[in-house]
Specification:
- This protein has seven helices and seven strands; from the N terminus they run βαβαβαβαβαβααβ.
- The radius of gyration is 17 Å and the shape is globular.
- The longest helix has 29 residues, at 105-133.
- β2 (32-37), α2 and β3 (58-62) form a beta-alpha-beta unit.
- By secondary structure, it is α/β, with parallel strands linked by helices.
- It has one domain (8-235): Rossmann fold (3-Layer(aba) Sandwich), CATH 3.40.50.720.
- This is 3-oxoacyl-ACP reductase.
- Pfam families: adh_short (PF00106).
Length: 242
């Protein structure tokens, strides 16, 4: 419980699924947690209440993380409520699922903004404080679609591949400041997003969908390991290998 005591974490898209599991794991390790959401305010507040029920500190914070002004306001609000952000989990994402020949420019732009631009905006917003304190952990939630065909579409693949490139780019430039930047690439985790594109786990060698809590275990490992940076950890039940 005390491993992250005194640390403040921000989880984007933290109201449900993988984000929810990560937020709760961070709180269990002693961190104060800001649970970001876009429209699921009740779900985000439920995560906060679950953390409070365990004796932890948490707040919910609504913001569109694809917008620079919203991100700036979000980070300022978290700092007022909990303190400077030490741990950033870039988990917010969307999956616009439609036939490839029906994809529009707006579909592409929105996917890039939410899945990729948000990582840049949130990272830039917390970076000065992390550098000043010479300690920081950034974990980006990617997808097996960054390297495989995926079940959503090329716009989604591209956004996640870009996220992993951004992970390496930041990692190389921040390691001397005590900041690590890594990614987790889950495939077919039991969430609302996966439920919309995959009805069966039959093609997964393990024989089942992954659990959000299994993703949070990897995230916690990356936060605790200061020697590991610029890496992407795959989590697929044997479906694919990096």
């Amino acid at each position: 419980m005390a491993a992250l005591k005194g640390r403040v974490a921000l989880v984007t898209g933290g109201s449900r699924g993988i984000g929810r599991a990560i937020a709760i794991s961070l709180a269990e390790a002693g961190a104060a947690v800001a649970v970001n959401y876009l429209s699921k305010s009740a779900e985000a507040q439920a995560v906060v209440e679950a953390i409070h029920g365990q004796g932890g500190r948490a707040v919910s914070v609504g913001a569109d993380v694809s917008q620079a002004a919203a991100v700036k306001g979000m980070v300022a609000g978290v700092e007022r409520e909990l303190g400077p952000v030490d741990i950033l989990i870039n988990n917010a994402g969307i999956a616009i699922n439609r036939p490839v020949d029906e994809l529009t420019e707006d579909d592409f732009d929105r996917t890039m903004a939410v899945n990729l631009k948000s990582v840049f905006l949130c990272t830039q917003a917390v970076l000065p404080g992390m550098r000043k304190r010479r300690w920081g952990r950034i974990v980006n939630i990617s997808s097996g679609a960054a390297r495989g065909a995926g079940g959503v579409g090329p716009h989604y693949n591209t956004s996640k591949a870009g996220m992993e490139g951004m992970t390496r780019g930041y990692a190389a430039r921040l390691v001397k400041d005590g900041i690590t930047v890594n990614a987790v690439a889950p495939s077919l985790i039991q969430t609302d997003m996966v439920g919309a594109v995959a009805s069966s786990a039959s093609r997964i060698p393990l024989g089942r969908f992954g659990k959000p809590e299994e993703c949070s275990l990897i995230v916690m490992m990356l936060i605790e390991n200061e020697y590991m940076t610029g890496q992407t950890v795959a989590l697929s039940g044997g479906l694919s290998f990096l």
